[in-house]
Structures are given as structure tokens and as C-alpha cells.
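As agreed, record passed on underneath.
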Amino acid sequence: MDLSTNPSTLINKMIRLYCIEDRIFSGFLYTVDPKTGNYVLFSQMNGKYQPTIVRCEVVERVEILGDEIPSELIKIFDSFTSVDKCSLNTSEEMQTTSSAIKTLTSDELSCRREKIIKLFSLNHLNEVSVNDREEVVIHNVVFIKPPYNIDCCSGKNMIILDRVKNLIGKLEEDRNNPVE
């Protein structure tokens, strides 16, 4: 396979990486780090699936071996993703004396979404888009649902997911502790 092909199209496929110095790595591709391009493979060793990280610089050729991923491995991959729990932050709750949760207007959600997208751009997360479900999508591996807080983040690339959550957390801290 041509190395110019987007490696994220190979996610969840059984692949073989032919590397420099005649090294060969085979396994199911869990993810490709969007920043470094490194491959994260899972292969079975001694009856257990183990991860292997292969630096993109050493890969000379990629071969697709199969498309069918074992159910056991799907469970492992799914366990890495965050819980799909999305709630308003406590600072946005209880806007009245009743215990009702404030619902954000579409303008407030749009403003919040734009602030997050700008924050990501300033922090070199450039492949950011909004899908038809109004989710912010980063490198096609991390998704943030409205109302765009930490609890609304999910994804399969733990490196990017953690970075996104940290950035959103800093944005929340800045909002809760304004400079006087």
C-alpha cells in the first residue's frame, strides 16, 4: 500500500508494517497518532492482545491482511473510549432558585463551540470540523457533543482525547476564575 494513503483508513484492520532493517510488525491497527503519525498495533502474544507502537519514520510499506476484527479485541478497543456521558457543568446549572438545569440557547452553544474551535487552533489542533450532529470533530478521532464540556468528549485516540480534555478544562477554569 502506498504510504501517502491516509493511515486512519486502516484503523481496525489487520495490517503488516514493513520497516527499515527488515523489521516486520503485524497486528490490528488501533489508531494512528495524528500529530506524530505513529502506529498503535495490537497483536496476540501468549493468548493476550498486547500493544506495539511503531514510529512512522521506520515504516517503508503497509500491507492489509484482513478486515475482520475479533470481538475480544473490539471489547478491548471499546474499553479505551470514555463513557459517553454528557452533562452541563455545575457552573451552568441552577440558574434559578429551582433545581432545574439551565438549557443553553443555540446562540450560546454556537458561541461556546466557536471558542473551543479557536482554542484548538491556537494549540495546533488544526483538523477540526463540525459534523451534522453539531459535534466538534478533531482529527476524526475525538468527538465533543453539545454543550461542549469535558464530560461530552469521547474518542479512540487517548493521546488526542486527553489533550482535548485538558484544553477544555483550562477554558472552564478561565471562565470560572475571571481575571479582575
